[in-house]
Amino acid sequence: MEEIKKYFIKTYGCQMNVHESEKLAGMLVSLGYTECSNEKDADVIVFNTCCIRDGAEQKVFGNVGALKKLKKSKPNLIVAICGCMTQQKDRVEIFKEKFKFVNIIFGTHNLNQFKNYLIEYNKTHKNLYEVWDNEKEIDENVEMYRTSKLNAWVNIMYGCNNFCSYCIVPYVRGRERSRNMQDIVEEVKGLIKEGYKVITLLGQNVNSYGNDINDKNVTFANLLKEISMLDGDFRLKFMTSHPKDLTDEVIDVIANSPKISKAIHLPVQSGSSKILKSMNRKYTREHYLELVKKIKAKIPDVFLTTDIIVGFPGETDEDFNETISLVKEVNYGGVFGFMYSKRTGTVAETMPDQIPDDIKHKRVNELLNLSKSMIKEQNKLLVGKTLEVLIEEQKDDGTFVGVTDSGKNVVINENVNVATYYNAKVDAIVGNKLIAKIVK
Ligand code: SAH
Ligand code: SF4
Ligand code: F3S
Asked: Of 24, 59, 99, 261, whose CB count within 10 A is highest?
């Protein structure tokens, strides 16, 4: 009997990559491979990489380097690298030179070719490096192996046209391409039928969905509307929203549909209009705060989260304090804070007044501590409130754990059904978990 071959995929970066790893897994499964949980057992190891910050890239270099020994003891092991990092030519050169044991390299634009590359490699045993410079038409013919039973990710668009001055994504992901609306709706229908409870629409800027399609009915608002009218007990999420393109119509659709999540991730990046301008974000502090006011008025139970970059070139203490004051004013449910990281080829790379690391560290710590204390205060206010909870699993001790629309973990000490939505009243907060009782 032929031995069953195993694969291990290591994913770095955003939800987009997590979902693309499901496509890689789909291709591997279709070739007869099965997943394994330890890279030591694998016959194929794939690194799906991210280059958003230097730290992400260093992690990849470290982890790929660490495979050298394994590969020596297991010469038939196939090592593949793909993702955003390999869209940069100089990074591919580093992989080729420093990590000669890597067998297959491909990029984001030819991800769907992985299956062919693997078949070819298995035939020839010759290293295969192929990265396409430009995006191609969207390929709807993808096999997927979804890794979560309750959450399903659905791409609605690829690429980004925004060129925020700090960001590498437009260079490694190409221009915006929207999927056909009917293809998306059909995919979501199938997922609901299969029992998925949370559907998350993915794009670098979902609000510009349809801008590249010559049909004025293909808009993000209409897509949300259509999906939210489908039958089934599911909730619809999306990420990420660019504040400059979030329309009143989208806000209204969210406000009026019980199936659309009220958790909105709305990255602000900075609270200083001066910095926003040099980031090329195309909105001001005032515009953003107005937008938040509008959202809160129409969606009173909204749960807003954000991304912030500290230490962008030219950021003074005053600029940073404006960020802190904006965070307090919006009262975010969560803040993802990042230290600015210089990316090759971006506009900000050559900007003057780059900020020293110690100041970046100090600022990011202040920001994250503020966020932590805000979350603590907000959690206190949840005691006594009734929230919708999706039960995810039963623990060994018999208790159930679930998750709220806003992503907070909930412990339920009663008999409930997994993969089901309940209303539950919060009794207490322990650490960052909510202890709740089902409301009958
Ligand atoms: N498309 C999404 C974000 C994708 S990247 C959006 O526009 O909101 C995720 C986050 O990484 C960004 O929101 C930003 O806060 C951060 N980021 C991007 N480039 C960065 C850089 N060069 N240094 C530090 N953080 C960065
Ligand atoms: Fe990067 Fe800006 Fe595009 Fe987001 S919108 S991916 S931050 S360039
Ligand atoms: Fe995502 Fe990182 Fe690429 S954040 S789009 S995997 S650079």
From this structure: 24
Distance CA 246, CA 194 (A): 31
**Dihedral of the CA atoms 368, 374, 378, 379 (nearest 10)?**
50
> Ligand 3 centroid vs 335 CA: distance in angstroms?
18
Ligand nearest to the backbone CA of 51:
3
Residue 64 Cβ contacting ligand 1 at under 6 Å: no
Q: Is residue 204 lining ligand 2, measured as CB closer than 6 Å?
A: yes
Q: Which helix (H) or strand (E) holds 308?
A: strand 303-310
Query: Quick check: helix, strand or coil at residue 22?
Result: helix
Does the pLDDT at position 136 exceed 90?
A: no
Q: Residue 411: which of 151, 421, 383, 426 has the closest Cα?
A: 426
- Partners of 303 in the β-ladder: 263
CATH code given to domain 5-130: 3.40.50.2300
**Of the ranges 137-141, 149-153, 164-168, 175-179, which one carries the lowest mean pLDDT score?**
137-141
User: How confident is the model over 380-406, as pLDDT tens digits?
Assistant: 999 999 999 999 999 999 999 999 999
Q: What is the DSSP letter of 427?
A: E
Backbone angles phi, psi at 80, to 5 degrees: -125, 145
Residues 6+ apart with CB under 8 A from 16: 155, 202, 204
pTM attached to this predicted model: 0.95
Give the dihedral sign, CA 157/163/167/170. positive
The proportion of the chain whose per-residue pLDDT surpasses 70, expressed as a percent, equals 100
Candidate of 85, 158, 167 to mutate for ligand 1, largest count of ligand atoms within 8 Å of Cβ? 167
Tell whether ligand 2 has an atom less than 6 A from the beta carbon of residue 266: no
Domain boundaries, the chain: 5-130, 149-257, 262-379, 386-438
Residue 321 binned pLDDT confidence (cut-offs 50, 70, 90): very high
User: What is the b/e burial string over 379-418, where b = at least 16 CB atoms within 10 angstroms of the residue's CB?
Assistant: beebeeeebbbbbbeeeeeeebbbbbbbebebbbeeebee
Instruction: Summarize pLDDT for 38-54 with one digit per residue, the tens.
Output: 999 999 999 999 999 99
Taking the C-alpha atoms of residue 95 and residue 170, their distance in angstroms, rounded to an integer, is 22
Question: Which CATH architecture describes the domain 386-438?
Answer: Beta Barrel (2.40)
* 5-130 and 262-379, same CATH topology: no
Give the architecture-level CATH label for domain 262-379.
2-Layer Sandwich (3.30)
Say whether 104 sits in a helix, a strand or coil: strand
